[in-house]
Amino acid sequence: MQRFTLSHPIPLAGLLAAVAVLAGCSSPVKIADNAGAPVESRSTAPGGTAGSGGAATQPAAQSQVTPVSVDPSAAAGVARVVYFDYDSFAVKDEYRSLIEAQARRLAANRSLRGSVEGHTDERGGREYNLALGQKRAESVVRAMTLLGAQEAQLEAVSFGKERPAVQGSDEAAWAKNRRAELKDR
To answer: Residue 94: phi, psi to the nearest 5?
Structure first.
């Protein structure tokens, strides 16, 4: 089994500080906590003003809306793809929220399992691209485990250049093919 290491190791103190900051950002307030709040209906007088000094002319009514727990990562159309720069496996800051959301989802439900599929563009040899795709998948898995997901919940897999998302031999196509896809198992 071949192991890969980061070319720029992260100092342990910095890593612990980042995890502590991220842990402090969570809010204990749930969306569904306010679902039982009463809704007041007011009718207006024919002149467009509220009847009898602005007081409600009808009794307060309860909301008939059913509360919904929203999992942003499970919504249809939510991207689960992390794109990389050419010849790089460093996760960009712009994908931090996506990785955090997926890590929170896995941390909240330890029975969930997922895979991270690493891909590359068509340039380079087959073995090189398989290794680079593996590094990309492992860097996303590493980031998710640092944010609370269990390593046993995730599997890093490389497809190299074998499964392009976009056909073409220009920078636009290559940029779409340099990716890691997060998938449920």
So the answer is: -65, -15
